[in-house]
């Protein structure tokens, strides 16, 4: 595994720890503080291990995998095992999870979970004995409440409804179940089986009026509770309507479960034959997770075969009125859920995430440094200028250098952290945007915002050039702009969270989502603020993306006529096709050839004129950098630096009495102490384009390999230039690692070849655009 790839895994591990830490602190997921502290320490260790000792990094990565990632994977597996009735597996998986999460306190839950394993192996009576023993030995009130809940669940599991109801009413206050949704669902069914519909109605009212009724995430549980009550009240119409229109999935129910509820409703309405026929369909509809549903259906059919149910009688007027109210509430709830699911299945959000990840993967596998980014479709100000003023000439070459890169650059990420950040932002914003506006408008607001922001920045760029360097820095667009998609989606989601746009969203859920999205937006702007000339995204592009998103989201109502929806689908499809065509054009050109022939920037450094692309930026001497060689005063390839590598062109003036010594780089003479840090050897083979600058003759072009602690860390090519008066000046091409010279060897060779002593040396280094 290469060092860069290993560092990517460490960063990913740190992000996993951060997400786990935020979840524990925000949701209070029943995890003790000891494990929270452990996850925090592993987050710090994973960050410190990046670019550090490999042994320490392996330990940090292994610890995160064992104590954070594996337990997170075991939790859904335990839930699936429970849903499939594999109760012994629930016990084994829970024990493994508790073992891997030291300090979490999950070991205290193991005796309760062990009862599920006993239930699966030995049956209800053995599980009851186990829980009663735990209750006799426990002195903790909260733990005792959990144990008695399990005892009640065991009675319900064995369909011993009367015993379960009696145990609940003996141990708990009447409103306790309203605070425990899963217990409430079981108790509702027990009241229905025992024909205590008045008690079931009281429990459902308490559930609706309690904390569960105000939680957006508890909508499915509330819907299931209403459906259970209606089924046992014999309300065939509302239940059959929900099954016929297949709205049961909006409540988190399977088709087999919905058929079971319909059969129960028919049974309690006195339609015995129809109930038996409906329950007979459950076997064919049941999936792997419907084992309990299958058993319940078969039990009801046996009851229907053994004896005719007694006459249920008519419901009391007050109860009948409440049944009608519950039916209307269920219809409204499931319709709202169906609208959300229909309008926003998250297909586009997930598609954008997959697309961004795929482009990042292609770039990672292809490599090539900064020039590799351009070949992938990154934006280059040089290529844009050439296409804008027509210097490259007519045809696909000029077109590919300009507008197509406006589309392709918004898909490109350079580092994993930025990719994961934007993926999370798109996913979170998509929960609001795509579920309310639908896939077409989600595609337009995300991808369209990014393209519009980039295009706006480029359109105002000529005016900024004429206004000066300070103004141009506001519009200069870096090589990539993938974060603009996230900015557009976040701003659109914030617009939709305005109470007038979506009054049905609960205030608490609205506030929580708005705060999170606002923080993401601020973080995105701060992270992507332009630095070092070509880094980041210009403020003009960020403003353009946000402006497009606001106008597009606010100008159209949430619900549109069918014809308008179709028009937007066509616009989204055209936008997507334009992106695919842009990639085809951009990938068909050779940007290095264009940059060799056309470089818009002329920089004067230490009296030497260098013609370079606009991605090159002036840098001062700096030793505290994440490279094995310091920054030397001169020019740095900003595009290469964006990929985490270093290529710099330094101008090294020689003293009057100094001379170039064989086997010693002039770089050592200009930076004190560097010779003590690095050792030097003659360089091996260099790229063909740079060979003339290393074999020009005695005392002229030279190349060296720089070593640190026995590891080759950099390569230096030195090209002396004679001055009319005084000692020569050396133009040094420095790459760390040395293989970076392969990324754009022809371009670097052209820069060295064009280097010339200025006729009017300036006192300070400066650059100008021609």
Describe what is shown at a glance.
Helix 9 packs antiparallel against helix 10. With about 775 residues, the chain is α+β, with helices and mostly antiparallel strands. A hairpin with a 2-residue loop joins strand 7 and strand 8 (about 710-720).
**Tally of helical runs:** 35
**β-strand amount:** 5-15%
User: What share of the residues lie within helices?
Assistant: 55-70%
DSSP E strands, number? 11
Query: Order of strands across the widest beta sheet?
Result: 3-4-5-9-8-7-6
Round the Cα radius of gyration to an integer and report it.
Answer: 34 Å
**SS-based structural class?**
alpha+beta
What summary fits the major beta sheet? 7 strands, antiparallel
The fold-level CATH name of the largest domain is Rhomboid-like fold
| The named CATH superfamily of the largest domain | Rhomboid-like
Low-confidence stretches: 336-344, 391-400
Output the CATH class name of the largest domain.
Mainly Alpha
Write out key terms for the chains shown.
alpha+beta, 770 residues, four-stranded antiparallel β-sheet, transmembrane, Rhomboid-like fold, 8% strand, single chain, 11 strands, 4 domains
Task: Explain this structure.
The chain is an alpha+beta fold. It folds into 4 domains: 1-122, no CATH class; 173-343, no CATH class; 347-590, Rhomboid-like fold; 599-769, Protein Transport Mog1p, Chain A (3-Layer(aba) Sandwich). The strands form 2 sheets. The chain has a 7-stranded antiparallel β-sheet. β7 (702-708) and β8 (711-721) form a beta hairpin. The longest helix is centred in the N-terminal third of the chain and has 30 residues, at 54-83. It is elongated. The chain starts with a helix and ends with a strand. The relative contact order is 0.05. Mean pLDDT is 80; it is low at 336-344 and 391-400. It is a multi-pass membrane protein. This is Peptidase S54 rhomboid domain-containing protein. Keywords: Hydrolase, Membrane, Transmembrane, Transmembrane helix. Residues 402-553 form the Peptidase S54 rhomboid domain. One of its GO terms (cellular component) is membrane.
């Amino acid at each position: 595994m290469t060092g860069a790839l290993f560092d990517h895994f460490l960063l990913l591990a740190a992000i996993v720890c951060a997400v786990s830490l935020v979840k524990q602190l925000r949701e209070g997921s029943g995890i003790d503080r000891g494990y929270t502290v452990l996850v925090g320490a592993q987050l710090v260790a994973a960050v410190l291990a990046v670019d550090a000792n490999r042994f320490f990094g392996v330990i940090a990565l292994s610890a995160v995998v064992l104590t954070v990632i594996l337990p997170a994977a075991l939790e859904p597996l335990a839930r699936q095992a429970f849903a499939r009735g594999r109760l012994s597996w629930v016990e084994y998986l829970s024990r493994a999870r508790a073992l891997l999460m030291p300090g979490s306190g999950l070991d205290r839950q193991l005796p309760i979970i062990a009862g599920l394993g006993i239930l699966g192996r030995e049956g209800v009576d053995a599980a009851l004995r186990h829980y009663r023993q735990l209750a006799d030995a426990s002195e903790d009130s909260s733990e005792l409440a959990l144990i008695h809940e399990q005892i009640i669940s065991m009675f319900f599991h064995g369909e011993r409804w009367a015993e379960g109801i009696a145990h609940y009413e003996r141990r708990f206050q009447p409103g306790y179940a309203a605070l425990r949704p899963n217990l409430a669902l079981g108790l509702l069914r027990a009241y229905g089986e025992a024909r205590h519909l008045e008690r079931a109605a009281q429990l459902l009212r308490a559930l609706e009026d309690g904390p569960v009724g105000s939680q957006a995430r508890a909508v499915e549980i509330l819907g299931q509770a209403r459906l259970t009550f209606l089924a046992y009240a014999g309300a065939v119409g509302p239940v059959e309507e929900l099954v016929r229109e297949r709205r049961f999935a909006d409540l988190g129910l399977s088709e087999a479960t919905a058929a079971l509820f319909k059969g129960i409703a028919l049974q309690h309405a006195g339609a015995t034959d129809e109930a038996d026929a409906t329950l007979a369909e459950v076997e064919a509809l049941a999936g792997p997770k419907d084992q309990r549903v299958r058993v319940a259906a078969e039990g009801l059919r046996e009851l229907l075969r053994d004896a005719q149910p007694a006459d249920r009688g008519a419901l009391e007027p007050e109860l009948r009125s409440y049944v009608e109210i519950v039916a209307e509430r269920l219809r409204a709830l499931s319709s709202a859920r169906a609208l959300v699911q229909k309008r926003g299945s998250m297909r586009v959000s997930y598609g954008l995430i997959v697309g961004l990840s795929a482009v990042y993967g292609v770039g990672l596998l292809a490599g090539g440094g900064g020039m590799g980014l351009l070949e992938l479709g990154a934006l280059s100000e040089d290529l844009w200028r050439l296409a804008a003023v027509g210097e490259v000439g007519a045809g696909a070459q000029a077109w590919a250098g300009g507008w197509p890169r406006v589309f392709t650059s918004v898909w490109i990420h350079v580092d994993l952290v930025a990719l994961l950040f934007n993926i999370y932002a798109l996913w979170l914003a998509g929960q609001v945007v795509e579920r309310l506006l639908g896939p077409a408008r989600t595609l337009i607001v995300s991808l369209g915002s990014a393209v519009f922001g980039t295009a706006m920045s480029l359109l105002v760029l000529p005016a900024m050039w004429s206004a000066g360097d300070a103004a141009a820095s506001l519009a200069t667009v870096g090589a990539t702009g993938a974060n603009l998609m996230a900015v557009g989606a976040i701003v659109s989601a914030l617009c939709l969270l305005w109470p007038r746009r979506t009054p049905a969203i609960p205030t608490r859920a609205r506030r929580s989502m708005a705060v999170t999205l606002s923080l993401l937006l601020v973080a995105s702007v701060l992270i992507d603020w332009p630095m070092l000339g070509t880094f980041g995204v210009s403020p003009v592009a960020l403003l353009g993306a946000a402006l497009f998103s606001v106008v597009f989201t606010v100008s159209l109502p949430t619900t549109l006529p069918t014809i308008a929806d179709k028009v937007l689908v066509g616009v989204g499809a055209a936008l997507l096709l334009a992106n695919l065509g842009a990639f085809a054009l951009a990938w068909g050109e050779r940007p290095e050839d264009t940059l060799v022939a056309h470089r818009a920037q002329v920089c004067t450094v230490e009296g030497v004129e260098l013609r370079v692309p606009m991605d090159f930026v002036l840098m001062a001497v700096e030793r505290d950098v994440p490279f094995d060689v310091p920054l030397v005063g001169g020019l740095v390839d900003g595009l290469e630096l964006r990929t985490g590598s270093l290529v710099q062109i330094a101008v090294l003036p020689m003293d009057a009495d100094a001379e170039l010594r064989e086997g010693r780089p002039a770089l050592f003479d200009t930076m004190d102490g560097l010779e003590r840090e690095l050792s030097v050897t003659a360089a091996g083979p260099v790229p063909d384009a740079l060979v003339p600058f290393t074999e020009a003759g005695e005392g002229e072009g030279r190349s060296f390999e720089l070593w640190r602690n026995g590891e080759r860390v950099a390569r230096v090519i030195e090209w002396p230039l004679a001055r009319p008066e005084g000692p020569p000046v050396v133009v040094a091409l420095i790459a760390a690692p040395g293989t970076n010279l392969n990324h754009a060897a022809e371009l670097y060779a052209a820069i060295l070849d064009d280097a010339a002593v200025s006729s009017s040396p300036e006192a300070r280094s400066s650059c100008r655009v021609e």
